[in-house]
């Protein structure tokens, strides 16, 4: 039995060309990028070139890119660092109920330290309620943080429209673009965002590296104390090999993104067609017409997440859910709870399938048929 990976939204396999780009750095470039000698300068050149490539990918200046250990650290700097640096202007922050926990837990931390946080509702189509944003925005608001693509449903959020709303307001606008980077065209100027988070391992790059775009005009307080690296925003010796791998992954996406998206959309459509053909009862969470190509979130009535995921895994299928599984119980998905209410059965019977480079049409077909068999066996009629 060959395992089938349908969890690319969690992490992606490293592209072979990314590995090839990293190997020479591991073998030959061991200097500290902060050192002034030849060995250090060689490492610094690698970081500078990666920063230039990544900045270009979102229409930013290379000085506006801060390398981090990943999306979580970038989100923490964006929320906590921005809030602390701008508390003289106000103490109000706006985010949504469907954000990644890297954002939600950072917001909760700020609440414990004197900041007021408004959590916007999510409509049943999976999008944030923009009308509510206008209502809760005040003169005290200093930061708005809304993700570009939800990690559970794949639903694309109206970031450009939100940018327009905030254009003449003092609040800085941050977006967690971890699930969008490499999937959508992202232009920070056109979107009107001041801070943007992305992560390498979501686009077939290495784990342990990400970036935070910080517009030059934004004041951010460092959350760590040490050296002068990353314009004093993120001290610590840089992950040179990881950054080189991130650059390679970005370049690969730039060259073949449209082909990838077409392929992932075909996988998604094919997967759903097989479920329908096998007479599986299911519904799709969120507006499927407004999702990224790689993600689909499916509710299977009469089932529960824990049993589904266990049986999928035993049959060689890797998928995931926003529900936190513990011994004998399932905590409902906070995203689906925001969309439908915490008592809705969808919150504990939904699975996220996400497609990527580890897939072929053949293993998508095999996976869909296995999923159909398992769901029909487990469903309570």
Automatic annotation (TrEMBL):
Q: Which Pfam families match?
A: Aminotran_5
Q: Keywords of this protein's UniProt record, alphabetized? A: Aminotransferase, Iron, Iron-sulfur, Metal-binding, Pyridoxal phosphate, Transferase
| Cofactors demanded by this protein | pyridoxal 5'-phosphate
Is Coiled coil one of the keywords UniProt gives this record? no
> Aminotransferase class V domain spans which residues?
4-365
Q: What is its EC number?
A: 2.8.1.7
Does the entry feature the keyword Iron, yes or no?
A: yes
**Enzyme class (EC, first level):** transferase
* Annotated catalysed reactions: (sulfur carrier)-H + L-cysteine = (sulfur carrier)-SH + L-alanine
Stored InterPro entries: Aminotrans_V_dom (IPR000192), Aminotrans_V_PyrdxlP_BS (IPR020578), Cysteine_dSase (IPR016454), PyrdxlP-dep_Trfase (IPR015424), PyrdxlP-dep_Trfase_major (IPR015421), PyrdxlP-dep_Trfase_small (IPR015422)
Mention one GO molecular function. Answer: iron-sulfur cluster binding
Family, as annotated: Belongs to the class-V pyridoxal-phosphate-dependent aminotransferase family. NifS/IscS subfamily.
By what name is this protein known?
cysteine desulfurase
Source organism of the structure? Aquibacillus halophilus
């Amino acid at each position: 039995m060959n395992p089938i990976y349908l969890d690319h939204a969690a992490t992606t396999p490293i592209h072979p060309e990314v590995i090839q780009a990293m190997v020479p750095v591991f073998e030959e470039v061991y200097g500290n990028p902060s050192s002034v000698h030849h060995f250090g300068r060689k490492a610094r050149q690698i970081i500078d070139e990666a920063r230039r490539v990544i900045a270009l990918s979102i229409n930013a200046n290379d000085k506006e890119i801060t390398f981090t250990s990943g999306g979580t650290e970038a989100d923490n700097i964006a929320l906590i660092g921005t809030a602390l640096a701008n508390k003289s202007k106000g103490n109000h922050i706006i985010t949504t109920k469907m954000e990644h926990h890297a954002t939600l837990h950072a917001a909760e931390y700020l609440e414990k330290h004197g900041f007021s946080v408004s959590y916007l509702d999510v409509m049943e189509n999976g999008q944030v309620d923009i009308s509510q944003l206008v209502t809760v925005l005040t003169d005290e608001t200093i930061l708005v943080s809304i993700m570009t693509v939800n990690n559970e449903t794949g639903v694309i959020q109206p970031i450009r429209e939100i940018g327009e709303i905030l254009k003449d307001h003092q609040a800085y606008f941050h977006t967690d673009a971890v699930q969008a980077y490499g999937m959508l065209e992202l232009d920070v100027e056109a979107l009107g965002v001041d801070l943007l988070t992305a992560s390498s391992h979501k686009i077939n790059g290495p784990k342990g590296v990400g970036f935070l775009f910080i517009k030059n005009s934004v004041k951010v307080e460092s959350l760590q104390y040490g050296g002068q690296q990353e314009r004093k925003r993120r001290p610590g010796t840089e992950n040179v090999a990881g950054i080189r791998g991130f650059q390679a992954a970005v370049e690969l996406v730039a060259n073949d993104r449209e082909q990838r998206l077409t392929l992932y959309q075909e996988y998604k459509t094919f997967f759903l067609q097989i479920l329908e053909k096998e007479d599986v009862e299911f519904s799709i969470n969120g507006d499927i017409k407004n999702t990224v190509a790689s993600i689909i979130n499916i509710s299977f009535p009469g089932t529960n997440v824990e049993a589904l995921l266990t049986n999928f895994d035993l049959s060689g299928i890797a998928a995931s859910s926003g529900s936190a599984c513990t011994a004998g119980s399932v905590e409902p998905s906070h995203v689906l709870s925001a969309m439908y209410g915490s008592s809705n059965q969808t919150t504990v019977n939904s699975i996220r399938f996400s497609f990527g480079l580890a897939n072929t049409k053949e293993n998508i077909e095999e996976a869909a048929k296995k999923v159909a068999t398992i769901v029909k066996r487990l469903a309570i009629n």
